[in-house]
Amino acid sequence: MKTMKMIYAVAMMIALAATGCAHRPVGITPLSPGPTPPPIDNTAPTMPPGPIITDNNATNMEIAAANPDLFQGMIEDTNALANYTAHFKYDSAAVQKADKDSLQAVASALAADASTKLLIEGNCDERGTEEYNRSLGERRALALREALAKLGLDPSRVRTISYGKDKPADPGHDDEAWAKNRRGDFVLLHPNPNPSGAMGGS
User: Fold this and answer.
1) Which range marks the domain in which residue 164 is found?
2) CATH number, position 99
3) Are 102 and 85 in contact (CB under 8 A)?
4) What is the pLDDT of residues 147-181, one digit of tens each?
5) What's the rounded Cα separation, in Å, for the pair 164 and 193?
6) What is the Rg, in whole angstroms, of the alpha carbon atoms belonging to the chain?
7) Residue 14, helix vs strand vs coil
8) Among 123, 135, 167, 139, which residue's Cα sits nearest to residue 46?
9) Which of these, 136, 193, 178, lies nearest to 160 by C-alpha position?
10) Backbone dihedral angles phi then psi of residue 164, each to the nearest 5 degrees
């Protein structure tokens, strides 16, 4: 009986050695995905830093736009009112109290000669997108037009244009230059004494 058990055990060992043991690989437990992290925005801001101020009181008068046909052929005098340039705070179209005397001088100059008209050029510093600065320059020019209307100047004699950041008074790239470039320029317009030779409007 002992001999039979030994023979059986030896036979089993030989069978296992010949066939080998089947080995099943252990599967890897996948990690749970978890929450997806938010995307990182590497784009540069299109607006200048800080709050964008909307001046609700800057253009609260209903002023009709001037008729551009009435300005055709007029001659620009950029020097006559150059000393009365108005300046603005950062991101603002609010007319400052410091420019009150300059605005009065501009209104008086127009009142002294009924044949003249006025072009107001709105300007910005270099910060911000072109689109934003065009809009802000327009708001600044319109705010100055409104301020002059409050001083008695007929707004139909005043046209506005925005140059945005394209016409800097100072080409620098610091606070001092930016302060100079946030402005509204006044250009006096004279009737052309020779209308047939007019080159076009302003």
Assistant:
1) 68-197
2) 3.30.1330.60
3) yes
4) 999 999 999 999 999 999 999 999 999 999 999 99
5) 32
6) 39
7) helix
8) 135
9) 136
10) 60, -125
- Domain membership of residue 141 (yes or no) is yes
Spatial contact of 141 and 122, defined as CB atoms under 8 Å apart: yes
Whether the model pTM is above 0.70: no
Rounded to the nearest integer, the mean pLDDT of the chain is: 79
**Within a domain: residue 13?**
no
Strand, helix or coil at 119? strand
Q: Strands, DSSP E only, in the chain?
A: 75-77, 86-87, 117-123, 158-164, 183-190
Q: Read off the pLDDT of residues 50-108 as tens digits, 9 standing for 90 and up.
A: 333 333 334 445 677 788 888 999 999 999 999 999 999 999 999 999 999 999 999 99
**Segment holding 76, helix H or strand E:** strand 75-77
What domain count does the chain have?
Answer: 1
Task: Examine residue 12 and state whether it is found in any structural domain, yes or no.
Answer: no
Contacts of 153 (CB under 8 A, 6+ apart): 106, 107, 110, 111, 118
Q: Bigger pLDDT: 124 or 22?
A: 124
Residue 134 domain-assigned (yes or no): yes
